[in-house]
Amino acid sequence: MKKCVIAPDSFKGSMTSIEVCQIIKQKVAEFFPGCQTVCLPIADGGEGTVDCFLQAMQGEKIMVPVHGPHMEDITGFYGRFQDTAIIEMAAASGLPLAERHLNPSVTTTYGVGELMLHAIQHGAKQIILGIGGSCTNDAGCGCAAALGAKFYHGAQTFLPTGKNLGQITKIDLSELKSLLNGVSVLTMCDVTNPLYGPNGAAVVYAPQKGATPEMVKLLNEQLIQFDHILQTQLGYSVAALPGAGAAGGFGAGAVAFLQAKLQSGIDTVLELTKFEKQIQFADLVITGEGKLDQQSLQGKVISGIAKRTFPYHIPTVAIVGDIGEDIASIYQMGISAVFSINQVAIPFSESKKRSKQDLARTTENILRFLKVFH
Question: Would you report the helix, strand and coil content of the chain in percent, each value rounded to 5?
Fold first, then answer.
């Protein structure tokens, strides 16, 4: 084997995608010493997205003083790749930053906007936003405010959060639009939730961010009012747009305020890293994630990788934690074989402690078998 491309997602709760790459790369070098390995760790837009891009592409990590989810002073960061900036929402409004005071009715995305502002002021013409792992429910109003948007309640400007979105009486986007002139914004979004309702931002995601049942009801009502305000002030609604409810309604705000395009995370990553060029002359592609199930078949990492390797007839192996039911169609998509790293029948709370060694052993067994034919 002369060339192997390694492009896994993280194994949630046990290994980052960078760690998975390193383990597999080490085993490939052990069994095929002359093999060229290309590592492309995949992130879904949440915590670790910037680091994954920095592993796959030449760029630099920029540290920036910004405001955190409770408007406290923190240091955020983003990745700069020529005139493109990769920003993960979690760097300024992530759940771990608010874990001692979880309250999505008051947290803000203001720091995310500050990261964008810094990137634009330093020459970024394309902003790619990863919006996973947020602790907010402000529909992106904080981000927009940091970029120059003004939200009024009567004659006074204020910073809307989840609890008072419905108090907005006027929106002025003139300064924001001037700033974003000539700048494109792409948002990595892998969920299809609408802005509000039973499958909306508040009902589905706010409880994970610390919302009580009463707070969930309040947040949902505020998002409904916010949509009515958008219709009145901007002349359109984005509430039913697939992904509008992502990251506490940031999906809706990204489209309404930033004129952003919502695109699947895997498509964004593979396009930006020029994946199809990377797999040229590859003898094998190894991908993987924590669990292969029906959701994996709907535009997640493994199916996204398979879609691009299939036309080139490149053998593509998926190494995963669990294997769900009814995943046979993954083979028609282009996956050659699927292997679970689970060596013994034990609960995840125990198996995650040995996931790295189990991944190494599973990879070794695959490579031992391939070695027979080389």
Answer: 45, 20, 35
Domain region containing 293:
3-40+284-344+360-371
**Residue 69 vs residues 112, 132, 194, 249: alpha-carbon distances, Å:** 9, 14, 23, 15
pLDDT tens digits, 70-79: 999 999 999 9
Could you tell me which residues come within 8 angstroms of residue 156 by beta carbon, excluding any fewer than 6 positions away?
none
- According to DSSP, the β-strands at 126-130 and 84-88 are parallel
> Phi then psi for 363, rounded to 5 degrees?
-60, -40
Which residue's structure tokens are 């390797």?
309
The answer to whether residue 202 is domain-embedded is yes
One domain, residues 13 and 128: no
Positive or negative torsion for Cα 157, 159, 161, 163:
negative
Secondary structure (3-state) at 188: strand
Q: Is residue 318 part of a domain?
A: yes
8-state DSSP, 191:
-
pTM for the model stands at 0.89
**In this predicted model, what pLDDT tens digit does every residue of 355-368 receive, in sequence order?**
999 999 999 999 99
DSSP summary character for residue 260: P
